[in-house]
Amino acid sequence: MANSDKNILITPNIGSANLPSIVFNGADNNPITITVLDDGTLSFSGSSGQLFSVSDSLTGTIFSVNDVSGIPSIEVDDSGIVRIAEFSGNVLVGTDVDNGNKLQVAGGGVSVGGTSIINSSGAWVGPNSGLVGPTGPTGGTGPTGPTGAKGATGPTGAKGATGPGGATGPTGAKGINGPTGPTGPTGPTGPAGAKGANGATGPTGPTGAKGANGATGPTGPIGAKGPTGPGGATGPAGAKGQKGAPGATGPTGPTGAKGAPGAKGQKGAPGATGATGPAGAKGQKGATGATGPTGPTGPTGPTGAKGANGATGPAGAKGANGATGPTGPTGPTGPTGPAGSTSYNAGLLDGVDSSQFLRSDAADTFTGTITMGTQLALVANNYGRGVFGLYSASRYQHVWSMGTSWKTNDAGTSAGNMYGLTWTHTNVGTGANQAISGLSHQLQLRENGYLKCAFGSGIWTSGNITAYSDISVKTNLVRIPNALEKVCSINGYTYDRTDYEVDPVTGIMPDVRQAGVVAQEVEKVLPEVVSGKDGNKAVAYGNMVALLIEAIKEQQLQIEELKAITSDK
Predict the structure, then answer these.
(1) What is the 3-state secondary structure (H, E, C) of 225-244?
(2) Residue 154 near residue 126 (C-beta atoms within 8 A)
(3) What pLDDT, in 10s, does the model give residues 38-97?
């Protein structure tokens, strides 16, 4: 540019109504004017209007770059806010080709807070949440493009700080519900109330009177008597004289024939003691005399008063529910990706890795505890469903317990402190507190690990087996007649069971040699204790005691009659 083409015009503000300005004009005659406005703003204008301005205002725009029509394209406020293409125009980065989009980036990606959200190919690689911006007006629905292949899920970005609340905009479409916040922890259980003191023991009832002694049993037969010397003729009984001196002992003669008993005379003076004959054979032991009746039982002392139950500890306060996290604003809609697969692999859901979720469509394993709330039971959908254990014929299997703290050990080699049910086999051992010999596979009831009852091919218990027998539930009582005859018509046997089979797992055959009665024999004389049909008849052995009691009483009556006959002779 030649010097003749240059022109600088300075208009001072001395005695003039015009604003002070400097006009720069080149050969193209497109002047640029720098003007100081009344508010102190330094304005740079072209032939079509203001190009940009600089202001020392503390409450508004301090820097502005405008298009040729004077509409701001870039504005900087006193608060540091930068606005680009607020009213019109588009923003291009790395390109000079305007395709009509508000923001166009070429030759690179876009990062926010150090996190890449759009890669250099234009694909969205950022998180699905965490970018919070004001909700813009809903645009018109564009034509649906083809579904692109789903891109790989990027890591979840850290949650940004919540920005200040803006003015309430128009209500947008309802977003999806946010996840429910986690339930607060359960409050601690209140302490157990102290155990009430035991009631005082009632005084012992007086001892019942002692029953009368039973009659003495008959004396056994006298052993064979040694041979007696020949007896002299019995003279008339004389007056009892003084005791004479013992005569010499004569030799024992052969026993004479026993004469008819004579009249019993007066007791004569004792004769000289004969030589002791050889000891006779020991007589058989006489029958034991009948046991005298049992004296009445003394009255039972009154039961001591039951100690008062300890007060129930207060229930622990329920933990407050965690506050529901606020629903984050809807982020900007990302570009539609290419069509993807219909199968998806999730990363995290509510911060939990998807590999920790329990599947419902395939076999799976969980290590936590499933607690039933309002659900009353786990209900199977057919008869082949239930609770399945881990089989071993030489371990204890946990079936049920009264709490998670009372169980077998994990290896199944010990019943542990089980308060509940275990399943096992005699292969685990038949020593103290193990399995019961002869029951094979067995269900066991245990208290603190100690065996109390077992059910298998028989029943075993550490206590007594009792049956309800109160008079209040009985009527039409009839004593069993001819009980001794009925007992004599049935037999006790030892026998081999024919319905036992070898255990298919252990290969062990149960002990088939047993003792008992035959149901068909018992049924002929006491059908009340026999149940079932031929091939499956059973006997209530405990109820047969009634027959045995009556038979013993009949037999005792016969014994008493024989004793009476014997004593009359």
Answers:
(1) CCCCCCCCCCCCCCCCCCCC
(2) yes
(3) 777 878 887 777 777 777 766 777 777 877 777 887 888 777 788 887 777 888 777 888
Which position has the token pair 């982020």? 331
Query: What three-state secondary structure class fits 52?
Result: strand
Structure tokens, 162: 């919540």
Which residue is associated with the tokens 């009632």?
A: 202
Interatomic CA distance for residues 415 and 396, integer angstroms: 6
Please, what's the b/e burial string for 434-451 (b: 16 or more CB within 10 A of its CB; e: otherwise)? bbbeebbbbebbbeebeb
Separation in Å, CA 251 to CA 232, 270, 275, 276, 495: 15, 18, 8, 11, 63
415 and 432 in contact (C-beta within 8 Å)?
no
What span, in angstroms and rounded, lies between the C-alpha atoms of 141 and 6? 55
* pLDDT tens column, 543-553: 999 999 999 99
Phi-psi region at 70: left, alpha or beta (left = phi > 0; alpha = psi -120 to 50): left
Question: CB atoms < 10 A from the CB of 67, how many?
Answer: 16
Can you read off the two tokens belonging to residue 562?
Answer: 């024989």
pLDDT band with cut points at 50, 70 and 90 for residue 239:
low
In 442-542, the DSSP E strands lie at 442-447, 450-455, 459-461, 493-496, 513-516, 530-531, 538-539
Instruction: Give the burial string for 381-400 (b: 16+ CB within 10 Å, else e).
Output: eeeeeeeeeeeebebbbbee
Among candidate residues 208, 209, 210, 214, the one with its CA nearest the CA of residue 291: 214
Give 163-183 pLDDT, tens digit per residue.
565 555 555 455 455 555 555
Asked if residues 433 and 449 have their Cβ atoms less than 8 Å apart, the reply is: yes
pLDDT number for residue 301: 55
Compute the mean pLDDT over every residue in the chain, rounded to the nearest whole number. 74
Strand partners, 105: 93
Rounded to whole angstroms, how far apart are CA atoms 105 and 119? 10
Burial class (CB in 10 A: 0-12, 13-18, 19+), 475: exposed
Element (H, E) at 523: helix 519-525
Distances (CA, A) of 137 to 85, 89, 140, 170, 332: 17, 18, 10, 8, 11
